[in-house]
Design goal:
This protein has helices spanning about 1-20, 35-45, 90-100, 125-140, 160-170, and strands at about 50, 55-60, 60-70, 75-80, 105-110, 115-120. By secondary structure, it is of the alpha+beta class.
């Protein structure tokens, strides 16, 4: 149900953003903790604002957004797994994904955990940027150990495209196409 709600919410936000663009390039106000909280509550009405942090869920995946209005920064984080036991090959693959397929989200290690993160200045953050970042950050968590992707795109010049082609060729082996 939350997936449907998130999809409808994103469509609604896209429509609102389109209407704001018609009003002029400066129509969107600076992002604040209060405005960010409103956006998140529209995504998940059960979100839990606590001081400068907001916990919520997207498609059964927990998300934590932490803001620092004084430093004008925000960080969205999705826990993926314990960092203990990460193999060098996995770390290399995540670094490759950070270059080309994780898009604006990133894999990161902190406090003994592997995270999907999005870090951005707070005030210039636009609503659509935030929504896209949430999709990408949730996707890097979902695709960990598989495609390591923030979405459907791969930024050129990296290693992921070749890795995906190799995977495709591997899947094609023994198949009659």
């Amino acid at each position: 149900m939350k997936h449907l709600f998130l999809t409808l919410t994103l469509i609604g936000f896209a429509s609102m953003a389109s209407a704001q663009e018609d009003a002029g390039p400066d129509a969107e106000p600076p992002m604040t903790l209060a405005r960010l909280t409103e956006i998140i509550l529209a995504i998940d009405e059960d979100a839990s604002p606590r001081g400068n942090a907001i916990e919520f869920t997207v498609d059964d995946i927990p998300v934590l957004v932490v803001t620092d209005p004084v430093a004008d920064r925000m960080r969205a984080m999705v826990p993926i797994r314990s960092a203990e036991g990460l193999e060098p090959e996995e770390l290399m693959r995540m670094m490759q994904a950070n270059f080309d397929s994780a898009l604006d989200a990133r894999y990161a290690v902190a406090q003994g955990r592997l995270w999907g993160v999005f870090i951005h200045p707070l005030s210039p953050l636009e609503q659509d940027q935030f929504l896209s970042a949430m999709v990408q950050t949730v996707n890097v968590a979902r695709t960990y150990g598989q495609s390591y992707s923030g979405g459907a795109q791969v930024f050129g010049g990296g290693d992921s495209g070749g890795i995906y082609r190799e995977l495709l060729e591997e899947l094609r082996k023994g198949q009659s196409l």
